[in-house]
Amino acid sequence: MKGIVEPDGHWRSYLSRLVCTSCARVYAADAIHGLCAECDRVLFAEYDLGALRTAMPRPNFGGRQLDLWRYRELLPVRSAQHALSLGEGATPLLPLPARVATSFGLGHGELFVKDEGRNPTGSFKARGLAVAIARAAELGIEHVALPSAGNAGAAAAAFAAAHGLSCHVAMPSDAPRVNRDEASAYGAELLLVDGLIDTAGRTIRERAKNEGWFDLSTLREPYRVEGKKTMAIELAEAGRWNDDWCPDVLVFPTGGGTGIVGMWKALAELQELGWIGPRRPRLVVVQATGCPPLVRAFEAGGDRAEPWPNAHTQAAGIRVPSTIGDYLVLRALRESSGTAVAVSDDEIVTARRILSRSAGVFASLEGAATAAALGPLLRSGFLGGNERVVLFNTAMGLKDAAGL
Questions:
Q1: What is the DSSP letter of 271?
Q2: Neighbour count for residue 110 (Cβ, 10 Å)
Q3: Distance CA 332, CA 13 (A)
Q4: CA–CA separation, 260 and 337 (whole Å)
Q5: CA dist 360 to 60, 64, 198, 348, 357, Å?
Q6: What CATH class has 125-215?
Q7: How far apart are CA 294 and CA 119, in angstroms?
Q8: CA angle, corner 354, sides to 349 and 360, nearest 5?
Q9: In CATH terms, are 93-118+229-399 and 125-215 the same topology?
């Protein structure tokens, strides 16, 4: 597979440095880094937005390929030859029929689904892993590893195969069979563990240290979040960079939190560039009642989320007892005047059935959780019923066909 064919002068990343999101320590962008060496917190990629604003005063992506690499200036990969595409990004924003919006309580509003199940390997994880593995290859890394509830492992395996890297994935032994089969099909070493994704994470960190693998765990390196942020850039482009179209609310199923964190980061970058105005959507984190550590922390006013004991839910992608980026998720919720809500598995299954049978959208359980959250959001008064709301279906329904 070849990288995207572009004349040399037409490809530029404005990546300038890495900065710790906690202590603000600065790191060179073109060296290999994981967490901050000073405080073990998350590193963010920063870009020379002043130079980009001069070069592109208004967003101009006409004529570029329809994948996430169209936003190359705001992505960290320096060379077109490493920007291997399997078709990730450019997912549809589907307007749901008014009768469906009404059935969920938004009788005077607009309801959309950003259908991330259209990505390679069937989930939004393709965005983050496309960029993280491209950057790993560019920096000379040959062995990548990560824990996964399922979808990230499949995506990592696919992009590692495309780049010719070795990939090692640890999953809970009860992860969805299709994800286990996908990771193996792409040639990854699959390590099944007794426990949840936190146990898989400990396995990867131990093996990575001993065997020289680079750890691609959620937010433990700087670049998966850069791929995920393109969801927000696509929404801005879909609205023609016009504040008048800006969604009022984005509802996102959240485990590790990279999607929420990445989109909030992108919106700040776009505003600084002057490509969008100051209007921002309110962000909503959705978790399952059997595993809602971020919901508990948000409701308690905390900055960190304690691990959730005995985590359980049918929605494997949000069965995440703890996340290293908890403080970033909680910060984004508060800065956006957003909220966090937990829904039961029964509510998720019911919402999935409505989306499938009334709107023709076969959502993953995680994606259906966002529709299930509309009821609690309306009852609490967070939604009034007349907003423009975007739900994120983070994976195709075939990933887990239970409950229909």
A1: H
A2: 16
A3: 25
A4: 13
A5: 33, 30, 35, 16, 6
A6: alpha beta
A7: 27
A8: 115
A9: yes
Domains of the chain, residue spans: 8-82, 93-118+229-399, 125-215
Contacts of 163 (CB under 8 A, 6+ apart): 82, 84, 133, 134, 136, 137
- Global pTM reads 0.95
**Pair of tokens at residue 186:** 């792409």
**Interatomic CA distance for residues 310 and 322, integer angstroms:** 12
Task: Using alpha carbons, list the distances in angstroms from residue 277 to 131, 184, 268, 272, 400.
Answer: 27, 45, 10, 9, 39
> For every one of its 404 residues, what pLDDT tens digit does the chain have, with 9 covering 90 and above?
445 545 445 799 999 999 999 999 999 999 999 999 999 999 999 999 999 999 999 999 989 999 999 999 999 999 999 999 999 999 999 999 999 999 999 989 999 999 999 999 999 999 999 999 999 999 999 999 999 988 999 999 999 999 999 999 999 998 888 999 999 999 999 999 999 889 999 999 999 999 999 999 999 999 999 999 999 999 999 999 998 889 999 999 999 999 999 999 999 999 999 999 999 999 999 999 999 999 999 999 999 999 999 999 999 999 999 999 999 999 999 999 999 999 999 999 999 999 999 999 999 999 999 999 999 999 999 999 999 999 999 999 998 875 45
Kind of pairing between the strands at 282-288 and 339-343: parallel
Task: Compute the distance between CA of residue 131 and CA of residue 134 in angstroms, rounded to an integer.
Answer: 5
Alpha-carbon distances of 39 from 35, 36, 42, rounded to whole Å:
8, 6, 9
Element (H, E) at 16: strand 15-20
Closest CA to 375 of 290, 286, 281, 274: 286
- CATH number, domain 93-118+229-399: 3.40.50.1100
Nearest to 250 by CA among 93, 380, 32, 134: 93
Distance of CA 101 to the CA centre of its chain: 25
Phi/psi at 352 (5° precision)? -65, -40
Q: How far apart are CA 168 and CA 173, in angstroms?
A: 15
Q: Give how far Cα 100 sits from Cα of 8, 110, 371, 374, 403, Å.
A: 48, 10, 10, 12, 20
Residue 209, classified by CB atoms within 10 Å of its CB into exposed (0-12), middle (13-18) or buried (19+), is exposed
